[in-house]
Task: structure prediction
Amino acid sequence: MIVEASGLDAASAYKLLIGSIVPRAVAWVSTVSRDGVGNIAPISFFTAVSRKPPMVSITLQPRSDGVTLKDTLVNIQDTGEFATNLVSLPQAHHMHRSAVEFASEVDEFEALGLEKGPCQTIRAPRICGAPISFECVVDRIIPVGDMLDHVVWGQVVNFHIRDDLYLDRGRIDTAAVPVVGRLAAEYTLVNNVFTTPLDEDVLETRQTKRMARLDAHAENWSPIDTAEWSPSGSTALAKEANA
Result:
């Protein structure tokens, strides 16, 4: 199957990207408005872009109306700072619910029942309970394409690392973090590790094996084509929250 990208609209291209680039790390981004209102959003277009200075990148799409900028981006533009927090399994549902498009005057820490953690350099709070958080100051904001997408580069000025995860020589015990990644319309728990090469019998067994589900859905179920799914990941949640 060959799909020519030039003939795709934004939603169709998005579906192919998020279904192909998996798993994606989730930046659970916390910001604060000029007026001090806390905001939280899960961003899965997230990666590292530089070592010295350490720098990360997040890409934000507009709200589900396709026009309005998300509060996260507005806050980043206004304050020049943000925190990225990793998501572990105990906080996965809170992270999922933070995709709701709350009104701008709603403090999402309070709405979601999450505790604010102080940062050392920036005004934006961390999310308490996150195993690792980065304090970031904006390096640049880059408009991309014609769909109001924006790429934000943030310089990491402080790392907050749970004590038991910090190893000698400045390493992270990666196998000790039950970190959650993003698939297309679902999440995955990173709970397997390996080095190569693997035995041939392992490779043969895993070649066509589906991922094991942790929830109660059937093995071949996916929300991607259900009425609950939306390209922004938030429309159905917003309807539920406002019901």
